[in-house]
Write a structure and sequence with these properties.
The chain is α/β, with parallel strands linked by helices and 325 residues long. The chain has three helices and 23 strands. It has a five-stranded mixed beta sheet with strand order 1-2-3-6-5, with no helix packed on it.
């Protein structure tokens, strides 16, 4: 074999080795996850298949730009990635999803921009009490349990126009003063805007978001819930520390109501509730399972209704009537 052929074969072998190593590097995460730290961006990561999940920010920068790709993979901000860090601003590409609790307890965080999220997951910004500005580039459709709870500096939310679902306590104890129209809202859980300037400034006996009754703040002992309400959250839950809650005697539910939260009458001592056959569920928090309602309740309903079956199932005092005005 000539010297030239040997050189060509050696070069080909080296190239083959490089290609083989490269292919092994690329495809290895499809069979086994690969973890590490990227010193340049300051993220710990876990590569699985074609995604690099950013598991923890360990960098020292307070203004953070989340990478769109890492190690040749698209990125995703993982669960609790920034939890408890001293970051002040975060910029996320519009192709990158942010997971639940990603920014929980970020006490210095003031500004968040970006992400591909259409859903703001559970407790994503929980207890970030310096958070002032939140900008999403996608239309937000759902905001889950406690997503912004205790963000006391957050006063404006201009991303609610397309929201269909608001989880319990989503904006509890924030600084929100005004809300946009939420014409597409289908469900709102308990205490969504509890202890906010917006709720405290609401006038009248009923605080309603969309068609969800959030709070009864009247003084009448016999209460007629307005027509048009479709779900009753913890509106009558009594708390002696809350000056806006009272003990009531009777509650008349209109036939537009389909759902009752299990804490709708929590801590009521002796209340009679008139439940029509339009009601088809008593749920725990955000429509995930049926449980026994709290409070000392007597149910008045019609024969064959869900309320009759529910009362029998959970041993709740009830009475069957032909109807009521």
């Amino acid at each position: 074999m000539s010297k030239g052929k040997k050189i060509i074969m050696s070069i080909a072998a080296v190239m083959l080795l490089i290609i083989t190593v490269g292919l092994l590097w690329w495809f290895f995460p499809y069979f086994h996850s690969v973890s590490g730290t990227d010193e340049e961006t300051g993220f710990n990561y876990l590569i699985t298949k074609d995604t690099a999940v950013l598991t923890k920010y360990v960098g020292e920068e307070t203004v953070v730009y989340v990478p769109e790709r890492l190690k040749g993979r698209k990125t995703k901000v993982g669960w609790r990635c920034f939890a408890g860090t001293n970051i002040e601003e975060v910029y996320v590409p519009d192709t990158v999803e942010v997971s639940s609790e990603a920014f929980v307890y970020c006490k210095s965080l003031k500004k968040f921009t970006g992400s591909s999220n259409k859903v703001i997951f559970n407790s994503m910004f929980f207890d970030d009490d310096n958070l002032e500005e939140v900008i999403f580039v996608k239309k937000i459709e759902e905001i889950e349990l406690g997503a912004f709870a205790h963000c006391t500096s957050l006063q404006e939310v201009d991303f609610l126009d397309e929201v269909r679902y608001l989880g319990s306590g989503a904006f509890r104890e924030t600084g929100i003063e005004q809300l946009p129209e939420m014409e597409k809202l289908e469900h709102a859980g308990n205490l969504v805007f509890y202890k906010t300037p917006w709720e405290e400034n609401q006038e009248g006996d009923f605080v309603i978001i969309g068609t969800s009754l959030q709070l009864y703040s009247g003084s009448e002992k016999t209460v007629y819930i307005p027509e048009g309400v479709t779900e009753v959250c913890s509106a009558f839950a009594y708390n002696e520390e809350n000056k806006r809650s009272i003990q009531v005697n009777e509650i008349y539910i209109p036939d537009t109501v389909e759902s009752l939260n299990y804490r709708a009458f929590a801590n009521q001592e002796n209340v009679i509730v008139y439940i029509p056959d339009s009601v088809t569920e008593v749920v725990y928090r955000d429509n995930d399972k049926e449980v026994k309602m709290e409070g000392n309740v007597k149910i008045i309903t019609t024969s064959g209704s869900y309320a009759e079956e529910y009362a029998q199932k959970y041993g709740i005092e009830y009475e069957i009537v032909d109807g009521w005005d």
